[in-house]
Write a structure and sequence with these properties.
- The chain is α+β, with helices and mostly antiparallel strands and about 800 residues long.
- About 40% of the residues lie in helices and about 15% in strands.
- It contains 29 helices and 22 strands.
- The strands form 7 sheets. Strands 2, 4, 5, 7, 10, 12 and 13 form a 7-stranded antiparallel sheet that branches. Strands 3-6-11-8-9 form a 5-stranded antiparallel sheet, with no helix packed on it.
- The protein is elongated and about 130 Å long.
- The chain starts with a helix and ends in an 8-residue tail after the last strand.
């Protein structure tokens, strides 16, 4: 328990809890200190003197480091900055360096620290840093300039333009740090990604801004060379002559459903006792029939109104009263023919032009030139408003002018109003202010201690809130609050967070935070052996992931205790997942076929019993107690063991064909007999065995290879539990340990950086507020969004990288 209280997250993500077996080994002089203000410093391990201070002393100062001074005053400012670097060098094994091969060791000196000595030094540093984190001015840390990851980019583009653009097929995958893909330190920009951004910006703008309004009235004239002619019609120098009852057809794309005017230029060879007659229509529907009274070359215009549906259609002009009398007397016309010069389609007529622009277009192009507004003025308004929304803050005039320059250049090169806007706004989408979440440095509020930094401005807080809870840009309400300066008050930040948690966009927290925290995102890549698990298909895979998202979202939306993520005796299933679990499916279901069901009698509890978790923590052919035990330690307790040594052999596989098949537990016990494996497996394996009644795709079972399954576990301290329900009961005995892990994981995700020693005090306060709030989900979120690391930023110090 002492060890657990002393643990803090460091860059190496190693924790004192795992060092406990080594802390007192070999008579090392180490006591673990807590975080309380009254904790006293303790004497450093002798290992520092044996291995470090010979080089890192006041006289030699190798690497500019005098370790003796730090050991004497471990809480000084110099020490706070130096100890994390010392820790990194020790944890990586770079220090102390081995002696040159040609040089014998000095008598009585060890070339390298033992594992116990390394553990003692690291544990002491962690305890010192934990103690220093709660003293003096708060250090809120600095978040690296952070690029939008792929999902944030897609959601931001959707909210900005209305275009749901999925870049995953083209963008390089985002790197992951500290378990999440929104960490600023790892979100780099490669030349390939920059090229993809350029392509994406152009495609998005082409989809979002149309250059033609389907409701805008226009005339399109078709000359004879574009017509389709029936037999009985032929082209000649004046147009097309129809010398018998026949028709010409003109293909036309009707931009919108509505009324159109069709005009025809026609004349005729007249004969008989009536003038030539012409029928005009769309497709097979005749809209009007008229007499063509002019002689050949005496062109007259005829028009008819038609109703047409949006889409491709065919305008038909037909000659309907052919006349030919070969025996007609001399001087009497014997042949009646129709001559068509051109066909014109005009429309649509009478539609509301403003309603004709697509929704995405109307969202962006908020102004157009008219008799009151000049073109450059209208374009300037469109560009400035779009840039403000894209950059998530007001835009200075000097920032808009280069974009207007692009607009003018596009117009000079023949683009219309909308086409030139596409060019200028594409530049916005490749600007660093759009692609990155920019937080500007400013003077520290206390010049005497820049470590305390400053409170972020309202727009920066708005962006932190929206990308934490929604994975997208601030909405209009949040920006309105930022513009008024209201986000300078913590109560406004709390109110906005509550509002945002109730919004549909908060599903992103379940998809992106919970999916990565619980590793259920890995379900997409899981490949259970289809020969052994024939029922596993894409429908079941999707249902597994949806179950976990629904439980997390239910806890968040209903503001339930976060402990229900561990202990819930209910879950959400569809018919496929209910069959997989052997649970009856209720009649009452939601519109997607899902229902809440009880887990009574199933052996399942919370997310630990979800098929998604059980599948991603298994091997393709069998369960993996190691992976499942590690998942509990790392994801639920933030207490991962050190990485395994490189030469650890694989666990032997068994099959039913084996003469005397051994259970997985038996094989694991043989594996654990190896000295290099024992220290980690004696904690991981008992936890993992508690899952053994669930196979590699999460089905309940009682037997393996006709052998009864033993789902009991015993930890090194003698703690025993049986099955998932027993394991959950064990975890619930100390719920604050899980809550601290959840707080650390969620704070890491919210900040976009890994936690450091100086964040320990903030995590302490967050956990206190969650306990005071009866562990409700909102209490966790509100404690995070009003914490100093979330609302403040430290000044850059000279030695910051």
């Amino acid at each position: 328990m002492v060890c657990r209280e002393a643990r803090v997250v460091s860059r190496g993500e190693r924790c004192v809890g795992w060092l406990f077996p080594f802390l007192f080994a070999g008579g090392l002089s180490l006591m673990v200190v807590g975080r309380g203000a009254g904790a006293e410093a303790v004497r450093a391990p002798d290992a520092f003197e044996r291995h470090c201070t010979a080089c890192h002393n006041q006289e030699r100062r190798r690497g500019g480091l005098a370790l003796e001074a730090l050991l004497e005053a471990p809480l000084s400012r110099e020490a706070r900055r130096a100890w994390p670097r010392v820790r990194e060098m020790l944890e990586s094994g770079e220090m102390p360096p081995p002696p040159p091969p040609e040089s014998p060791e000095a008598p009585g000196k060890r070339a390298r620290p033992t594992e116990e000595e390394y553990a003692a030094m690291l544990g002491w540093i962690d305890s010192v840093l934990a103690r220093s984190g709660g003293q003096g001015p708060i250090d809120p840390g600095r978040v690296t300039l952070r690029r939008l990851n792929r999902d944030e980019y897609r959601r931001t583009v959707l909210d900005l333009t209305g275009i749901d653009y999925e870049p995953a097929a083209d963008f390089p995958a985002d790197d992951v740090g500290y378990g999440f893909d929104n960490i600023g330190d790892v979100l780099s920009v490669s030349p390939v990604l920059m090229e993809r951004y350029l392509d994406a910006a152009q495609e998005i703008m082409e989809r979002a801004i149309t250059t033609e309004n389907p409701h805008e009235r226009r005339r399109v004239r078709y000359e004879a060379e574009r017509w389709s002619l029936d037999e009985g019609a032929e082209e000649f120098e004046l147009g097309v002559m129809l010398y018998t009852n026949a028709a010409v057809r003109v293909a036309h794309e009707f931009p919108a459903t509505g009324s159109y005017v069709i005009r025809v230029r026609a004349s005729a060879d007249q004969a008989g006792d009536e003038p030539a007659r012409m029928a005009v229509g769309v497709g097979d529907v005749v809209a009007g029939e008229m007499e063509v009274t002019g002689a050949r070359g005496d062109w007259r215009h005829y028009e008819v109104s038609v109703d047409a549906a949006a889409g491709e259609g065919s305008v038909t002009v037909a000659f309907v009263n052919d006349y030919y009398v070969e025996e007609a007397p001399e001087g009497v016309a014997r042949d009646r023919n129709l001559v068509v010069g051109w066909v014109e389609v005009d429309g649509p007529v009478g539609l509301d032009v403003s309603a004709g622009w697509p929704e995405a277009h109307r969202r962006i192009v908020i102004d157009r030139p008219d008799e009151r507004t000049g073109e450059l003025e209208a374009a300037g308004r469109v560009i400035e408003r779009f840039a403000e929304r894209a950059f998530r803050r007001p835009v200075e005039r000097e920032r808009v002018e280069p974009l207007m320059g692009l607009y003018r250049l596009a117009r000079e090169n023949g683009e219309g109003y909308e086409g030139a806007l596409r060019v200028a706004l594409s530049a916005v989408l490749v600007s660093p202010e759009f692609l990155f979440r920019v937080e500007r440095d400013r003077a520290a509020e206390d010049p005497a201690d820049p470590r305390a930094g400053w409170r972020l401005d309202d727009y920066e807080i708005a962006s932190r809130l929206s990308y934490f809870l929604w994975s997208t840009m601030p909405d209009r309400e949040l920006l309105r609050r930022a513009r008024s300066g209201a986000l300078a008050k913590d109560e406004t930040v709390r109110a906005q967070a509550i509002r945002m948690l109730g919004d549909e966009k908060a599903r992103a927290l379940g998809e992106n935070f919970a999916g990565q925290w619980l590793l259920t995102r890995n379900l997409a890549a899981a490949q259970p052996d289809r020969r052994r698990f024939r029922e596993f298909d894409e429908g079941l895979r999707a249902a597994m992931g949806e179950e976990t998202r629904r439980l997390f979202e239910h806890v968040a939306r209903e503001d339930r205790s976060v402990l229900e993520l561990l202990s819930a005796d209910y879950t959400f299933v569809n018919a496929k997942l209910a069959e997989h679990y052997g649970i009856g499916m209720p009649q009452e279901r939601d519109e997607r076929g899902w229902a809440r069901v009880s887990l009574e009698g199933t052996g399942r509890r919370g997310v630990l019993g979800h098929a998604s978790v059980l599948t991603v923590t298994s091997n393709p052919t069998r369960t993996s107690p190691v992976k499942r035990g590690l998942w509990v330690l790392d994801q639920l307790l933030n207490d991962p063991p050190p990485p395994p040594p490189p030469d650890v052999p694989e666990l032997e596989e068994e099959s039913r064909e084996t003469d005397s098949p051994r259970s997985l537990r038996e094989r694991m016990e043989l594996h654990r007999e190896q000295a290099t494996c024992r220290s980690c497996h004696e904690v991981m394996d008992p936890i993992g065995f508690a899952f053994e009644r669930f196979d590699a795709i999460g089905r309940y079972r009682e037997m393996e290879f006709d052998l009864p399954i033993d789902a009991s576990g015993e930890l090194p301290d003698g703690t025993r539990f049986v099955g998932l329900e027993g394991l959950v009961g064990f975890l619930m005995e100390d719920p604050d340990r899980f809550v601290r892990t959840l707080a650390e994981k969620m704070l890491t995700y919210a900040l976009g950086r890994g936690l450091e020693y100086y964040d320990a005090a903030a995590v302490d306060r967050i956990c206190e507020e969650v306990r005071a709030g009866e562990y409700r989900f909102s209490s966790l979120v509100l404690a995070i969004v009003t914490s100093d690391p979330f609302l403040r930023r430290r000044a850059k110090e000279p030695d910051d990288e």
